[in-house]
Design brief:
The chain is mainly alpha-helical. 47% of the residues lie in helices and 0% in strands. The chain has three helices and no strands.
Length: 86
């Protein structure tokens, strides 16, 4: 037991004297990640606009999605194999 206690104290002292790199590199990871994710600061200047999706088409797509998510449109006749037990 005394060996374990002495070894624990020695390890704690060794780790306490270890160099700390956290303070030196504080915030560098966040600024690096932000700079990597920024490809172009003003991408809207030279990018051609997409054609084909206007307001009417977008409204029709949203309405079709809402109707597909309506629980009244779910088929009730489809058998479920998950709840089948022997």
């Amino acid at each position: 037991m005394t060996r374990f206690l002495a070894l624990s104290i020695a390890a704690a002292l060794a780790f306490a004297c270890a160099p700390r790199t956290v303070e030196e590199n504080w915030g560098k990871a966040q600024s690096y990640n932000r700079s990597v994710m920024t490809i172009d600061s003003k991408p809207w200047d030279d990018v051609p606009r997409e054609e084909g999706v206007d307001g009417k088409t977008g409204e029709q797509a949203v309405e079709a999605y809402r109707q597909s998510q309506d629980p009244k449109n779910d088929p009730q006749d489809v058998p479920s194999i998950i709840n089948i037990s022997r």
